[in-house]
Write a structure and sequence with these properties.
The structure holds two protein chains of two kinds. Chain A is α/β, with parallel strands linked by helices. Helices cover 38% and strands 16% of the residues of chain A. Chain A has a seven-stranded mixed β-sheet with strand order 4-10-9-8-7-5-6, with helices on both faces. In chain A, helix 3 packs across helix 10 and helix 4 runs parallel beside helix 5. In chain B, helix 4 packs antiparallel against helix 5. Classes of the chains: A alpha/beta, B alpha+beta. The structure holds pyridoxal-5'-phosphate.
Chain lengths: 420, 152
């Protein structure tokens, strides 16, 4: 990917061994309906490597206690482990400080946090929130809610027939009424990698902050938020080979520090009297209540694991897998690929003549092949392409060409079963 | 091909999916109810015309998977001319068939064309697809004001 925000081209790519890495993901040995599992639903959630499983297990076996509260030994150790995970996140994003790393439940909560706190303080009647036609519902609905509350409007960057943002339209829509731009870094429904550097540069030229939904970008390698210069970056632990129920909001400290609290409760305060509460510093001001300690530690383990991988090698492997899959599936009669952007991660969204994706999903499942079917929480994308749903195969670095072959064979079987 | 799949996608189902019967808007219908499964996007409109408690016409329009579409189609062919009570009794039997499967002591013939759906209970994720049109028909019969039936 040339000059791409997901790549890190300094190092020469080695040959990445997907077969070897599979051994670290125990679930990949499972069988489904008597066949070896072919897990191609990585955009929905990714599988977990042993270090993540061990980290959560060991936390509960040896450290379990509440964080930031106890004077006792366990609490100190748990707090240290929790804060070490924050540092692992900071490193993976190259954020300036751990103060900028807020633990939340996932991408959805991260975006809701920004929509509620930024929206409440920065949106006035007539203002505009600019999103894109590629967004996941979690980057649409929170903005709709706050716009309705504040009398602001939602404006949408359209997409072209290949599933890429219309950057000419972006330029036109970026007026001074726009108070924030919120777009995904990588689209979950189609796999499009968006030109986020250009988006940030153009928005910043008008002093408009930008939130990037990175849920589908980080599984394909570390990003550098300082290089991207984005103001907010949101992601989910479970999509980066970590646990569910944990995610992160990165916020540039100057902006994050200017926002009011999101939820009230324990830990987010410095002192409370019935007359007045003094809020805690960043990032704790946004972490009310006992956090998901085990989840954070699992996420830290996942990012530490990813950090050590050979990313140039993985990128070459993932590119190779995508082009092989695109080529192979295109040989099946009646296949139409939805989303053929110039820059894509390993996502194949497709329809097969008039066979409904739900039927495709059931038939592939009988072959042990897990894909997602439906609208992928991105109904506006489906509407744009005039289809109710797609079948989506999404790849992670542990997927192999043999699995692509199984998918393509499975899709041929769908034709046979459905009599098309 | 694997037996489970053959039992799910039986000939009758494939046929009704390809050539759905009574697949049209019914002008002057007494009841018009939408059926929607937000999870997979199945979306149908079911039209009923009733006369003295008897279903005179039943038609449908829309799109969705083979199971939901063939189920709506087969239902439409079975219920024309049936009384409300008969239609509700068929609903009850169909519901039993797709959730519990064919009982050991049950004669598949007694289900008529509905027997084609006896494989659905092996596919829990597809039960909703099979039952969608039936639920919609039932609420259309029971509630003149019903407008949208969603499976979620
Ligand atoms: C691009 C994108 N944004 C947001 C989300 C929501 O993530 P979560 O459900 O983990 O909060 C997803 C997950 O499907 C996604 O793919």
């Amino acid at each position: 990917m040339p000059a791409n925000t997901l790549s890190n081209e300094q190092t020469v790519a080695g040959v990445f061994d997907a077969e070897a890495i599979r051994e670290e993901f125990p679930i990949l040995e499972r069988r489904v309906h008597g066949r070896p599992l072919v897990y191609l639903d990585n955009a929905a959630t990714t599988q977990k490597p042993l270090p993540v499983l061990r980290a959560e297990d060991s936390y509960y076996r040896t450290l379990n206690s509440n964080v930031h509260r106890g004077v006792h030994r366990l609490s100190e150790e748990a707090t240290e482990a929790y804060e070490a995970s924050r540092e692992s996140v900071r490193r993976y994003l190259n954020a300036a400080s751990t103060q900028e790393i807020v633990f939340v439940r996932g991408t959805t909560e991260a975006i809701n946090l920004v929509a509620a706190t930024f929206g409440r303080t920065h949106l006035a009647p007539g203002d505009v929130v600019l999103i894109s036609g590629l967004e996941h519902h979690s980057n649409i609905v929170p903005w709709q809610m706050v716009c309705a509350e504040r009398g602001a409007t939602l404006s949408v960057i359209p997409i072209d027939d290949r599933g890429q943002l219309r950057m000419d339209e972006f330029g036109r829509l970026l007026t001074d009424r726009v108070k924030i731009v919120a777009v995904n870094h990588v689209s979950n429904a189609l796999g499009t990698v968006n030109p986020v550097r250009e988006i940030v540069a153009k928005a910043h030229a008008r002093s408009i902050p930008v939130l990037l939904d990175g849920a589908q970008a980080l599984p394909h390698g570390p990003v550098d938020v300082r290089e991207l210069e984005c103001d907010f970056y949101a992601f989910s632990g479970h999509k980066v080979f970590g646990p569910t129920g944990i995610g992160v909001l990165y916020g540039r400290s100057a902006l994050l520090g200017s926002l009011p609290p999101y939820q009230g409760g324990g830990d987010m305060i410095r002192s409370v009297t019935f007359e007045k509460t003094v809020y805690n510093d960043l990032p704790y001001r946004f972490e009310a209540g006992t956090p998901n300690i085990a989840g954070s530690i699992g996420l830290g383990a996942a990012l530490d694991y990813l950090w050590k991988l050979d990313w140039p090698g993985i990128r070459a492997h993932e590119r190779d897998l995508l082009s092989y899959a695109t080529e192979q599936i295109s040989t099946v009669p009646g296949i139409r690929l939805i989303g053929t952007a110039e820059e894509k991660v390993g996502v194949l969204s497709f329809v097969l003549q008039d066979v409904h994706p739900h039927d495709i999903g059931t038939i592939l499942d009988q072959e042990g092949i897990a894909i997602r079917t439906g609208h992928h929480c991105a109904q506006p994308v489906m509407i744009r392409f005039g289809i109710p749903a797609t079948a989506r195969a999404s790849f992670a670095f542990y997927n192999t060409k043999a699995e692509v072959d199984a998918l393509v064979e499975g899709v041929r079987r769908v034709r046979e079963v459905m009599g098309v | 091909m694997r037996d489970d799949l053959r039992s799910l996608y039986q000939e009758i189902i494939l046929d009704h999916n390809k050539n759905p019967r009574n697949f049209r808007v019914l002008e002057g219908a007494d009841r018009v109810v939408e059926a929607y499964n937000p999870l997979c996007g199945d979306h149908y409109t079911i039209y009923l015309s009733l006369e003295q408690g008897v279903i005179r016409e039943i038609t449908f329009q829309g799109s969705g998977c083979a199971i939901s579409k063939s189920s709506a189609s087969v239902m439409s062919t079975m219920l024309k001319g049936k009384t409300r009570q008969e239609a509700e009794e068929w609903f009850r039997r169909f519901h039993h068939l797709v959730t519990e499967g064919l009982g050991a002591d049950e004669d598949p013939e007694s289900y008529g064309k509905l027997a084609a759906f006896s494989g659905v209970n092996e596919f829990p994720a597809r039960v909703k697809c099979a039952i969608l049109a039936w639920h919609t028909m039932k609420s259309a019969l029971q509630d003149p004001a019903a407008s949208t039936i969603s499976t979620e």
